[in-house]
């Protein structure tokens, strides 16, 4: 097996589908930037790697995990809002975008879909209550997604809230320090009881 094929095999074994330049340097134990860029260029020419955007790569012919990509496109973000609520059947509509919380509002479109980032204050973003680290991206629990959603959009009709942990929902709502949100969440919990 060639050295380049061994490097790609290392990426396959990592379990990741998206790699930043820094991650490639770590997986390939490459210290010098120039050497790294030569290796990346060769991997792309041989058809092993493809560019997603500047500084972000995927292994050719491996399905890119959209949640992992959402976390890689914008650092300091986590998947939430309608994406988690649709995944957990809290809402029955798919909006066609992958929604995440971030420190900046932005929208990125590429061949893998539309990735929308909704701005939340740093104090909320940095509070990890209700956020799960999967190892390749961060995603909220259903309760945190509902709180993020209600915080940004106000109380909206939801399709199925029967599986939500109501105590956890109330506990998470307190981290926002927003009386309107806490009131909306209490009103929402009354619908389940």
Domain unit count: 2
Largest sheet: 4 strands, mixed
Apparent shape: elongated
Flag low-confidence runs.
Answer: none
Instruction: Work out the helix count.
Output: 9
Rg over C-alpha atoms, rounded to the nearest angstrom: 20 Å
- Strand composition percent: 15-25%
Q: Spatial order of the strands in the main sheet?
A: 4-5-7-6
Gap between N and C termini: 62 Å
Order of helices and strands: HEHHEEHEHEEEHEEHHH
- What structural category arises from helix and sheet content? alpha+beta
Q: What is the percent of helical residues?
A: 40-55%
- Integer average pLDDT: 94
Strand-helix topology:
Layout lengths: L2 H12 L3 E3 H7 L5 H13 L3 E5 L2 E4 L6 H8 L4 E2 L1 H7 L9 E6 L3 E5 L2 E7 L2 H4 L5 E3 L4 E3 L1 H12 L12 H8 L5 H14 L1
Parallel strand pairs: 5-7
Antiparallel strand pairs: 1-3, 2-3, 4-5, 6-7, 8-9
Helix pairs in contact: 5-7, 7-8, 8-9
Labels describing this entry:
193 residues, alpha+beta, Arc Repressor Mutant, subunit A, four-stranded mixed sheet, 9 strands, elongated
Task: Describe the model.
The structure is a single chain. This protein is an alpha+beta fold. It has two domains: 3-59, Arc Repressor Mutant, subunit A, CATH 1.10.10; 69-192, no CATH class. The chain is built from nine helices and nine strands. The chain has helices at residues 3-14, 21-27, 33-45, 66-73, 81-87, 122-125, 142-153, 166-173, 179-192, and strands spanning 18-20, 49-53, 56-59, 78-79, 97-102, 106-110, 113-119, 131-133, 138-140. It has a four-stranded mixed β-sheet with strand order 4-5-7-6, sandwiched between helices. Strands 1-3-2 form a three-stranded antiparallel β-sheet. Helix 7 (142-153) packs across helix 8 and helix 8 (166-173) packs antiparallel against helix 9. The longest helix is centred in the C-terminal third of the chain and has 14 residues, at 179-192. It is elongated. The termini are far apart. The model has no long low-confidence stretch (mean pLDDT 94).
């Amino acid at each position: 097996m060639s050295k380049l094929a061994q490097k790609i095999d290392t990426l396959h074994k990592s379990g990741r589908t998206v790699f930043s330049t820094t991650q490639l340097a770590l997986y390939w134990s490459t210290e010098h930037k120039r050497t790294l860029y030569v290796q990346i260029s060769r991997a792309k020419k041989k058809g092993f790697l493809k560019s997603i955007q500047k500084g972000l790569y995927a292994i050719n012919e491996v399905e890119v995990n959209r949640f992992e990509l959402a976390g890689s496109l914008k650092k300091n973000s986590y998947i939430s809002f309608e994406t988690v609520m649709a995944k957990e059947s809290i809402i029955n509509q798919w909006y066609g975008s992958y929604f995440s919380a971030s420190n900046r509002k932005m929208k990125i479109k590429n061949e893998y879909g539309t990735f929308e980032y909704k701005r939340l204050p740093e104090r909320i973003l940095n509070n990890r209550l209700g956020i799960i680290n999967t190892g390749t991206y961060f995603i909220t629990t259903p309760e945190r997604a509902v709180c993020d959603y209600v915080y940004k959009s106000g109380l909206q009709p939801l399709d199925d809230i029967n599986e939500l942990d109501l105590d956890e929902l109330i506990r998470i709502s307190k981290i926002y320090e927003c009386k309107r949100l806490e009131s909306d969440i209490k009103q929402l919990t009354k619908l389940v009881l």
